[in-house]
Amino acid sequence: MAVYTDVSEGELESFLREYPVGRLLSYKGIAEGSENSNFLLHTSEGPFILTLYEKRVHTEDLPFFLGLMHHLAEKGISCPLPVERRDGALFGTLAGRPAALITFLEGMWMRRPSVVHCREVGRALAELHVAGQDFPLSRPNALAIDGWRKLWAGSHERADEVEKGLATEVDQDFALFAREWPTDLPSGVIHADLFPDNVFFLGDRLSGLIDFYFACNDFYAYDVATCLNAWCFEKDFSFNLTKGRALLAAYQEVRPLSEAEKEALPLLARGSALRFMLTRLYDWLTIPDGALVQKRDPMEYIRRLRFHRAVRSPSEYGLA
Ligand SMILES: Nc1ncnc2c1ncn2[C@@H]1O[C@H](COP(=O)(O)OP(=O)(O)O)[C@@H](O)[C@H]1O
Ligand SMILES: N[C@@H](CCOP(=O)(O)O)C(=O)O
After folding, report:
1. Residue 22: per-residue pLDDT
2. What is the pLDDT of residue 290?
3. H or E element: which one contains 40?
């Protein structure tokens, strides 16, 4: 459940008066998602999504996130369009939180993505990378190595509660990344969280991308690695080579990877697995039991991390 902040009908109505969206007919909290509070609204002008930004989203980053959605939508990427207020602003304040209204996207996310879905997401990711190339704003990745170190500092002491020996194991990954993390791969705007729950489909056709609230500037290939982790592993933590091949081939039809990007993929996939393990671990250890938030299992990403440690060649992900 991700509704951290309650909104009363009265305060919502007065918030909506600033928007050209007609009269409020109904609204309800959305259980899915984990970072922000989301509501589905019906107004006399149609359905909208209302988002109240919570702990990991800072107000100063909203022009980047909302401006990016605007930019991508104009370039033909199917993503929500932030609705402009009457004063031209893309967000306001509601129930003490920064809040925005975005257009509603049709479709549903795939609980069990198939090879066809992996192909669709590979292509969409590359199109997003290309469409973002002339976006004028930039935002450093707050969850790059320095961000990982902060999360690790906040959970290191208790990591062995999740699995004995985990703290020592992960310390070794940090040591490797400090020495070998690439510095000069092609970079630009990346989504940074393109998991299945952030990609909508109508049948087998991708209908839209949502949740740009980790978007930032970083290596394109790091985004590819994040998608390999999120889309191409099976429930038993085996890597599905057919899915990997489909995702990478579709990506490369739009934006071919350089030799340096291909070579870096095992390390980037390992780093991306660590990044998601760390946010999950931090939340696992700090969010109180019984809170109305769906906690995600850090072990799922430790298992991926272990897989990548053993990878010797990018061909093991399906790269030709
Ligand atoms: N533009 C949209 N159109 C339709 N549904 C949306 C849209 N944005 C969010 N949702 C719904 O809200 C849920 C949570 O959104 P998400 O942005 O992933 O939240 P969080 O940032 O908290 O993870 C999604 O799974 C989806 O059901
Ligand atoms: N995708 C992340 C968590 C972020 O949640 P989202 O609902 O914003 O995609 C994870 O799986 O750890």
Report:
1. 95
2. 63
3. strand 37-43
What separation, in Å, do the N-terminal and C-terminal C-alpha atoms of the chain show? 41
Q: How far is the CA of 48 from the centre of ligand 1 (A)?
A: 11
What's residue 292's pLDDT?
Answer: 61
CB 118 within 8 A of CB 232: yes
Q: What type of residue is 20?
A: P
256 alpha carbon – ligand 2 mean position (Å): 27
The residues lining ligand 2, judged by C-beta closer than 6 Å to any ligand atom, are 33-35, 193, 195, 197-198, 211, 276, 279-280, 296
Provide the 10 A C-beta neighbour count for residue 5: 16
Q: Which residues contact 74 (CB under 8 A, 6 or more apart)?
A: none
Helices 166-180, 259-286: crossing angle, 10 deg rounding: 150
Task: Let me know how many helices (H) and strands (E) the chain has, helices first.
Answer: 9, 9
Comparing CA positions, the residue from 60, 1, 67 lying closest to residue 36 is 1
- Write out residues in the chain with pLDDT < 50, as ranges: none
Residue 223 pLDDT: 98
Locate the ligand 2 atom nearest the alpha carbon of residue 198 and give its number.
Answer: 9
How far apart (Å, rounded) are the C-alpha atoms in residues 72 and 134?
Answer: 10
CA distance 249 to 98: 40
The closest-lying atom of ligand 1 relative to the alpha carbon of residue 37 is 22
Give ipTM to 2 decimals: 0.96
DSSP 26: E
Contact indicator for 21, 101 with CB cutoff of 8 Å: yes
CB-CB contact of 248 with 317 (8 Å): yes
Tokens standing for residue 177: 């990344």
Residue 212: Cβ within 10 Å count: 25
Residue with tokens 């039991």: 289
Looking at residue 4, its pLDDT comes to 85
Structural domains of the chain, with CATH: 9-103 (3.30.200.20), 115-317 (3.90.1200.10)
pTM: 0.95
